[in-house]
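Suppose a colleague, Dr. K., hands you the sequence of a protein chain of 300 amino acids and asks what its three-dimensional shape might be. Before reaching for any lab equipment, you can write down a predicted structure in token form. Begin with the sequence itself:
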Amino acid sequence: MRILITGSNGLLGQKLVAALRKDPAVVLTATSRGPDRSPDRLGDRYLPMDITVAAEVDAVFDRVCPEAVIHTAAMTNVDACEQDPATCRLQNVTATGHLVQAAQRHGTHFIHLSTDFIFDGLAGPYREDDSPAPLSVYGHSKLESEHLVRNAGLARWAIARTIIVYGVAPGLSRSNVVLWAKAALEKGEPLRVVDDQWRMPTLAEDLADGCIRIARRGATGIFHLSGPDGMSILELVRRVGAFFGLDTAPVTPVKSDSLGQPARRPPRTGFVLDKARRELGYAPRGFEEGLAVVRAQLAG
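The predicted structure, expressed as tokens, is then:
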């Protein structure tokens, strides 16, 4: 199977590459902006591609003729999106449109990554058919890109929504909440953490596995792929501290509105995972199991 990955330099992208690069049943093409940042370079299986440029997208698709695309590339910094909606729309909506058009031309199975931030967080955990109501520019951009995918007339499409992805990968431009919490607790400095946002954090390897299962099965429709354990961000930080043997006494609970962040966050999201478990065999690891994976990778 010819599989193309967008955003291969990101956390999820690197996990997808790691899972697929040695699979004899897969012809892998990894794409991202700029040079390949995988720890073990992919050589001619990597193609630089700026998804905001339609001609670059078309050239790569015409060269590779992918049977499946896993579209992970996006602008995901929620506050940056709020402050620069034009760039957010370009990267999350316009670029997805370029990819969808190329996929339509090639009959490609289009697998699109989305987010719990399409919901307002008033009634989580959410099922796949619950009604979206985004609170932020980022959430609106991801919902609009979902509509593009659903309404483009693609032969096959799937949307994989996820929540707070964490894990270890080299050369990332951004950290993630688990690595941030661990590093902050190690410094022992005072730490203000929100106690009024509830999430189900997702190990990057598990999310990659769910996306690959969609591709292998040719599955279509919307799937919720997150970790199985729900918790507040405050509890998340404390559980990271407990797992790594770090003192959480410097942690002070605060409310979201005290932080002055540009973008509103949904208070309580989380996903019902029944559909993904049933149709894909998706079996995500519990939070502490995920932390054990992180610890092993950090140890090298």
